[in-house]
Fold these 4 entries.
Entry 1:
Amino acid sequence: MTDRTCTHRCVRPAAALLLAGALACSPDRDMPESIDLQVSQVYVTEPVLGERAAMYFSVTNNGSADDALVGVSTEAARVTEIHRTAREGDVMRMERVEALTVPAGTRIDLAPGGYHLMLLKLTGHLFPGDGFDVTLRFRHAGTMLVRARVIAYEDVEQVLGSPSAQDPHGPR
């Protein structure tokens, strides 16, 4: 009886290990077939008030499945958020969003007047020409380290190719 009990207990963990190994090698049904994201033109505007800055960039999804930007972090700010600019009548305002979907085969431009990242509670001064690392977290692609370059606010339109007058973070 003792041998049978021992054999039963010993076989169960072995079977569990085999099952876990088989599951680990099987394809994950939630994982897209192809993930290929490229991030470019990462810029942060020089803070106007010194406590917050807007970050813009382009992300291209060359993969076969949608992905989403779900988080951001940097040592340059204590708080980072994904925002979009929304118009309510004649008033432009920011709305925090939990994620930004990047559809397969498309490019999304984070730019003034649209989606952008907010760096809040800056940890130091940001001057034109400065650079710092930013970690972008995507739902499927995982984390991506990019280098952000600080630009003067008046250079936003030239660098990003979009009208800075629509940016609610700019000078008033």
Note: The chain has two helices and ten strands.
Entry 2:
Amino acid sequence: MPQLIDQILANPLYTIIAVVILAVLVFAIIKKIIKLIITILILIAAYLAYVNYAGDDVQQTIDKTIQTGTETAKEAKKKVEENKQVQEAKKKIEKELKK
């Protein structure tokens, strides 16, 4: 790998080609991220418009969604902690069985 980098840096034509390829890749990644962000914002706006059209209070719906997300995150954290404890116990048992 270091030889390839040295070869690219030694030849100006290879360096220019590498820079162009890198720029195209970075541009493509940024473009996809921007499209994703725009899509998410459109979906959120459509959801809020639907909630408003349905007659619900938008702020109350947002608060309820945040609360549900927070509860889900807490439950997931609890499950991860339980899984860690199970894995630690499993390792101790395996260690004891090997003796």
Note: The chain is about 95% helix and 0% strand.
Entry 3:
Amino acid sequence: MASSEKQLVESFYTSEFYKDPSQVSKHFHPEAQLYWNSSAGFNKMNVKDLEEICTEMAKSFENIRPEISHLLQDNSIVTIRITYFTQTIENPDEEIPMAHMVAIWEIKDGKMYRGYQMSQPAEDSPENLSSFMVTNL
């Protein structure tokens, strides 16, 4: 049976956060910080920043479908490895891989508190995509 901490992290990353920014306050501690390294550089984000990025995403994406390959827990630390596939507003009939992500979250008071996330654009080569098809651990 999955722990409540794992369920919390999985629940956020599989939610429709891009359509519903209230998912941020539902899942994140009020003092949450996300340290995000991406192909675009480093960002340090708080709850307000996360709500704003979710609102911006809704302007571009018709749908975002997550596929989790790993969901691991060690005490109050949860790690998730995920690929997001998107359908853009401009091309809602085609689903494309958007990003691969790994995030490590410290859970505090039943909420996501400190996060360390890395992301990169997803390549659509079969070998690359199949490497993210590992079942949850």
Note: The chain has a mean pLDDT of 91.
Entry 4:
Amino acid sequence: MKNGMTGRVLAAGLAGLVLGFCAADAAPRTAEQAAVALERLDSAAQGVPILLIAGSVSNKAGQHEYFAGCTLLANWLRQNPGVVPVQAAEGWPTDESLIDRAKVIVVFADGGAKLPFLEPQRMERVRAAVKRGAGLVLLHQAVDVPASVKDEIGAWMGGVWQSDIGARGHWDMEFSSFPKHPVTRGVEPFSAPLDGWLYNLHFQKDAVPLVSGSVPDKSRSTADAKSHVGRAEVIGWAYERQGGGRSFGFTGCDLHRNWGVESQRRLVVNGILWAAGLEVPEAGAKVENPAADLLRWMDDKTKEAKAK
């Protein structure tokens, strides 16, 4: 009994050390960010819970603004009935039961080896959520997954980016037409200047392309990408899994200022609502955005750079 108690005490101490290191590694939040309620899910709230997971501070100011982007998405989702958005920061909720309760999990974070849910226990939690039919939405870099899990996450998402055939970069894109689909309701032609994109993904055969546009041929950095010169490339799609559940992917939103484009906001919010199994309004989701809100919750990357 004594040894068992000692083991539990040691385990608790080690867990505390790990949490301490994680807290120390996290970038300090701005005053505006600190005022945002994180991981609050009122059991009495009416509507399906949508978990928005923001990745850790990344890249330059104005790019990879994961916290600000998720806060804006939560604000826009609240304008639409039937949903209860819940936010988590630093790539993963401290209350992991939120994963279990979420109707949709939205990940806006770095990808590749930095994808936040790659750790085996986290991966198992997401796997269980997908198995029960939860929606999954991956934005920007999060569609880039390690080769070791590309088949599994590809089956969840309907499409993943890999360096073997995929290409990426920054350029202006214009989207002039969209197929008829609940996710494209109310989405008008729009442009996204200087944003960052990933394209030429590995797609499942049932993935539905929703957003496609021209890319500079000089961006075609792989042999496969070069074999499709002139082809419009898919950067947004919807997918209904054979075992149940829906997924939506969009590889843009690298550049924070492009959330100021109403059609981009509506496209992503529509995608989240659709992944939740909700009816998207014929005119599309409400996504009103006061101009002052666009920059309100951005990371203080100047301080972060000085600290490094």
Note: The domain at 29-307 is CATH 3.40.50.880 (Rossmann fold).
